[in-house]
UniProtKB/TrEMBL annotation:
GO CC annotation terms, alphabetical: plasma membrane
Coiled-coil regions listed: none
Transmembrane parts of this sequence: 44-60
Species whose genome carries this gene: Nostoc sphaeroides CCNUC1
Domain of life assignment: Bacteria
Name of the protein in its database record: ABC transporter permease
Amino acid sequence: MLKRSLNQTSEASKGSVSPPSTNFVSQPETLTQEAWRKFRRNRQAMFGMVILLIIVLRDFQRINHSKKTRDRFSQE
């Protein structure tokens, strides 16, 4: 939560509210950027992605290990 300074709270209580600042110009997001931003905010989706990544990396390690073992036994 953002804390207001004393000047802002006193002005807000008087009823004079300043319009939002529009000094910055932002580029529009692409669909990919918007999807990634929404995906990152979803904690369950991020957890699922980590689990899926662990499974995929483990399987690649097993495939690599089985090739080494097969090559070692075929040379004998």
